Every structure is written in C-alpha cells, then in structure tokens.
Amino acid sequence: SALTVGELADKIGRNASEIIKLLFMMGNMVTINSTLDDETIELVCMEFNVEVHKEIIIEESDFEEQMDVEEDASLLTERPPVITIMGHVDHGKTTLLDTIRKAHVTEGEFGGITQHIGAYQVSVKGKKVTFLDTPGHEAFTAMRARGAKVTDVVIIVVAADDGVMPQTKEAIDHAKAAGVPVIVAVNKIDKAEANIDRIMSEMSDNGLMPEEWGGNTIFTKISAKVGTGVPELLETILVLSEVEDFRANPNKMASGTVIEAKLDKGRGPVATLLIQNGTLHAGDAVVVGTSFGRVRKMVDDHGRELKQAGPSSPVEIIGLNSVPVAGDIFKAFDSEKKARQIAETRLNKRIEQERSVSSALTLDDLARQIEEGDIQEINVIVKADVQGSAEAVKASLERIDIAGVKVNVIRSTAGAITESDIMLASASNAVIYGFNVRPNASVRKKAEEEGIDIRLHNIIYKAIEEMEAAMKGMLAPVY
Ligand code: GDP
C-alpha cells in the first residue's frame, strides 16, 4: 500500500525535505502530503541506502531495526539458504567448497564447465543451497561494512589437528556481529592427530557450546578431503533452513547484492549478483551501486545462459556501464531511463562525498611538501583490473607510515581509469595508482590538464617502494 512523503520520511528516519528535494532532482514534484507509489518508495529507499528486503525496510546503518512496510506473508515463498564458509587459513575452507561442489553436480549439469563467479548453487535432496565461494572473511567483512546482508548461515571450519586459531575467533565474531546462525564443521577428522574433543572444548570456551554437551551450537565432524560427514553437513543445512524458514517474493523486480565484479577485456564490466528478492530477467534495466545498464546476458555458475533467475540465485551479468563494487546493492527497474537517472544521482552524490580540498599533487614534490609540513596525509585513488588487487594495494599503501605521514586511499575499485577518477583526484588532491589498467588517450589528456599524476604498475611491492621513496624524497628522476 502507498505511503505519503511524510510517512516514508518517518519510517526511514529522514527529513521529508530531503525526500522532496531528491524527487525534485529527478523531475518529480511532490509535497509532504503527496502519496508515493511502491516504485517511487523503492527508489527513495535505494537513494538513501535503505534496503527494501522481504517486504521489510531495513536501514543500512542498522539492520536490527526492521520496520514493516506492507508485509504480506502470502506473497513470500521458500528460497534457498545462502551459506558462507569461514575459518582459519589452511583449515580446509577451499577443500570443503570444492568437495560440495563436485559431489552435487546434478545430472543435467554433469560435464558442464564450472566457472568461478564467486558463488555457486548445488542441489541437495531436491533442494537448492547457495554457497558464496569466496572463502575468508575479507569479502564477508567488506560486504558487511557496506551494509550488505547476504549470508543466512555461516559454517565455521576448524581443523581437528590444529585448534581454535586467531581467524577462527574472528569468524566467530563476524558471525555473531551479523547475527546469523552458525554451524561448526570440525574438519580433518581423517588425520591421526585429530582431536575432536579438544576442538569442542576450545569452541565452548569461545561461546559456541555443542548441542551434545548441552549447548545450542550444531557441530558436524567432517573430512573435507575424503568427504566423510559432508552429506550430514549438507543435511544439517537443510534442517536449519527449514527451521529458519528463509523466504522471498519471486514475483517482483529483482534486488540484491554484488558478490564480485571485474572489468573483462572483451566483455566489459562483469558482475556477479546474488538475487535476494524478486526475479531478474534478461533485458531488465538495473542500477548496481552507481552503475546502470541492461542485463544483456545472464549466466549461472556453469556458464549456462538464463532467461530469468529467482531469489538466492547467483548470476553473472554483463551490460553495465561501469564496474560496481562488491557489497553494492542492485535493483531492477522497468525503465532504463529511471535506472540511468538513479545511477547518475548516486554517482554525483558519491563524488560530492569524496571531494575535499583542491590543487594537484605529484609524487615529485611530495617529499618537499612533507618536509615543509604542508601535508599529513596523501590521498590516493587505486584502480585495478580486479577488486581483489585494488583492495590489496589499498591495504599495503595504508600501512605506510613515514615521519607520521600516512596514505589515505579515497577510492579503490576495479575498472579502467576514467574521467571521474581524474575529477575526484583533482578535487581531493590525489595521486592515481593503476594496476593492470591504463587510461585511454582522452583520460590521459584530461589528467594532464588537471595536473594529475597517474602511476601505472603491475607489481604491488614496486608501487609501495615507489610511494615510500617519494615520501622520503628519493624518487628516481624520470628522463
Ligand atoms: P583453506 O585455506 O581454509 O581454504 O584450506 P584448504 O582447503 O586450502 O586446505 C589446506 C590444506 O589442508 C590442503 O593441503 C588440504 O588438502 C588439506 N585438507 C583440507 N581438508 C582436509 C581434510 O579433511 N583432511 C586432510 N587430511 N587434509 C585436508
């Protein structure tokens, strides 16, 4: 049912004037008492980063605070659970993901080429289960940091021949913070050194007491390598899912989250989307973060082309105008014009937020400026061919600390260096680092005009060395 501008403002904790201004900018004149249709409500929610999920509006900053909007349970149907596997390095996350995937290729899929798209779906006793195939909690944390809630259940893998390690504890913390149910998988039970009791006791010390000891955490004992216990683990997931009763409405325009995105030399921007509500169709207009476009082609994790995909499906799409970021929320619209408008306002807003002081900075005069005490922070924009490298470069650069001067990465994304990067660099006095990406001629020209330094590298430590040298005033002159 419809809401007025005032009512919506209350629900999402914004001023009515902000909504009126936003809609005005999109060419829609309203007053505080105007009634908004569903589509406009969704559009406003998207603008303010409020996710409309399961017919419930969830504020990005506070997922706990859920407010019902036209909750109509009769529209919701069962959907597959979405699982993330976490745990300490070498405890067997990748092996488990591989074993599950190999063991559950259904007949029709047999022989199909599996593709890494960042998530996959298997069929267990006729029920589908979706796995996010990016082990480690960096991806999970990055998504959560952006407010995305993508996982229904976390499996924490602990090696029985090792024990609870720092990343095991981190995984526990992340799962707790996200408020999602946990299944503990005690792994490597095939090994002679395996000591299951020790793992159960250490996990209990960390607040996860096994059911068989009177606690309420489900423990499964597996060998990811041999396959022992994996069917039981999958069945446990099904039982838990039935209890949790995950639902969505397949009969509406799709919305969800970006799992992975990259720039493909031949195909352009490619994004893996997890559809969390609604159904996505080939040809739909979509806004993905600040990108937009049409779903030109949609494939599953076997590379098979799909005409449509429902809730909890991971799909890879092409057709976007730029590369989005993992954790970005996407939404399908019935008109491309609307999608474009929303993407543009979001982009302008993002640039405005990122913008600060002006005047160009080059690595050459960096040391002098540091010495003169003119700067305490060096702004950097990182662009790379894949999001993973962008994150890695960002992390390495931000660790540099020379004479108290730090590197502040104001943007790190996958994709070519664009005019928007130059504009942001110019606005915030930043240096641009490109990894396995190059600016085209017009972007280079723009950079020259604005006096922006673009540094191109394909080895991370070389870039770090160069930055450190520049900060110490030892940058080798370029002839
Ligand atoms: P990840 O870092 O958590 O993804 O761990 P991997 O899946 O890469 O596994 C690390 C190592 O442990 C690899 O050499 C695996 O073959 C081995 N491994 C994983 N699961 C098992 C298991 O159940 N039993 C045994 N014996 N080795 C395992």
If you had to describe this structure to a student in words, what would you say it looks like?
It is a single chain. With 479 residues, this protein is α/β, with parallel strands linked by helices. Helix content is 33%, strand content 29%. It contains 14 helices and 26 strands. It has helices spanning 5-12, 16-25, 38-47, 93-103, 137-145, 166-178, 196-205, 230-244, 336-354, 366-371, 387-399, 419-428, 441-450, 460-471, and strands at 3-4, 35-36, 50-53, 56-59, 62-68, 77-78, 82-87, 119-124, 127-132, 153-159, 182-187, 218-221, 247-248, 255-264, 268-277, 280-281, 285-288, 291-299, 308-309, 314-320, 329-333, 377-384, 401-402, 405-414, 430-435, 454-457. It has a 6-stranded mixed beta sheet with strand order 8-9-7-10-11-12, with helices on both faces. Strands 14-15-20-18-17-21 form a 6-stranded antiparallel β-barrel. Strand 4 and strand 5 form a beta hairpin. Helix 5 (137-145) packs parallel to helix 6 (166-178), helix 11 packs parallel to helix 14 (460-471) and helix 12 packs parallel to helix 13. The protein is globular, with a radius of gyration of 24 Å. The chain starts with a strand and ends in an 8-residue tail after the last helix. Guanosine-5'-diphosphate binds at residues 87, 89-95, 135, 187-188, 190-191, 223-225. One of its GO terms (molecular function) is translation initiation factor activity. Belongs to the TRAFAC class translation factor GTPase superfamily. Classic translation factor GTPase family. IF-2 subfamily. This is Translation initiation factor IF-2. GTP binds at residues 87-94, 133-137, 187-190. It is found in: Cytoplasm.
